[in-house]
Amino acid sequence: MRTQVGIVGAGPAGLLLSHLLHIAGIRSVVLEIQSRHYVEQRIRAGVLEQGTVDLLVNCGVGARLEKEGLVHRGIELRFGGRAHRIDLSALTGGRAITVYAQQEVVKDLIQARLAAGGQVLFEVADVSVHGFAGGAPLVRFRSQGVTEELACDFIAGCDGYHGVCRQAMPAGALTLHEKDYPFGWLGILSESPPPSHELIYAHHERGFALFSMRTPSLSRLYFQCAPGENPAAWSDARIWSELRTRLGNGTTLQEGPILQKGVTGMRSFVAEPMQCGRLFLAGDAAHIVPPTGAKGLNLAVADVRTLAKALAACYADGRTDLLDRYSETCLRRVWKVQRFSWWMTSMLHRLPDEGPLRQRLQLAELDYLAGSRAASTALAENYVGLPFDD
Ligand code: FAD
Ligand code: PHB
User: Fold this and answer.
1) Residue nearest to atom 8 of ligand 2 (CA)
2) Are 143 and 271 in contact (CB under 8 A)?
3) Which of 42, 86, 330, 358 gets the most CB atoms within 10 Å of its CB?
């Protein structure tokens, strides 16, 4: 088999890259270890930045997003018995975020790739990448029991944090920056109307809670828990009681059947550079942010936007300068988004062994945020998404 760009991973990064390359007239093959059903049902992110929405719409995969996505012009912060709204749109010249589930983005992209005759191979096994340090990159994998080789000009490692591409880079080629937080999130999807029409980020002495949604009748709720917490140890009644306590302020939380329940760890991680020879990393394969800023999916989109442009310039005009600067261009955004995600996380979570001092400082920071237009603007412009670098 031969193609121009071999893409490992059919998450948002790999699928969007394949779609953008197709628009630029560049052929690609996407290899995915999971089934199509699995990736289309995997529950993850839900908040799309304005720039992510604009990109998806402009490249022709935004029809359902525009119809079904929920546009949010503000978020609420709850702390110290108060509620404060950050007016995202008023503070950013009219920008907004859109709530639209990651698996819906994935469905739209798969549909677009297959409709255009694109090759997305699901349920492949034993994927390995070779030859990227020289001029003959190759992806080896098994499909339906048969070992295959995909020769290509470039490999895009879009295979997430646990993928094989980053691991295939030689020792010493990468510097890894990593921090694990001493807490996690227990998340539920519930068949119940969300407690508010906007997201609520709640600081509470028992720990952080987040009230989000997927549709007007489907709530997505999270609360801070121990990092290795067993979700089965939390009965539905106990989950609702914890959420009610942390929401506070007399808002009624409508309880409904819990359709899904899971625990997520919290990590800040960056691998740099994001390139080794003809192998380029994008999305979670190169970096992880704690979910408090709602940035992981958006950062993956920004990476592949940059990579697709650089590959298009290379194929169309023989220019390699954009490819050479890929890592540098992406990392400028990655580090800013890491900072924002770390800051939101630090301001809103309780540390297991913290004294009252840290909590008082957090409350002072939230109070300052609520009272200062400058501080609110800094939050808002990061939350709706910084402008693309190039
Ligand atoms: P992935 O989605 O992980 O895709 C990688 C793909 O590669 C997967 O399909 C995987 O099966 C496949 N793969 C792995 N190994 C191999 C292999 N060896 N060969 C072939 N394929 C392989 N982000 C936001 O922007 N907003 C949010 O609101 C938000 N909320 C989140 C909430 C939770 C609970 C979690 C867990 C994450 C959240 N994120 C959020 C983060 C976001 O989901 C990720 O950043 C996003 O999935 C990254 O996309 P990706 O394509 O880089 O990686
Ligand atoms: C979600 O709806 O899944 C969500 C929203 C905001 C976040 C993280 C996750 O910060």
Assistant:
1) 294
2) no
3) 330
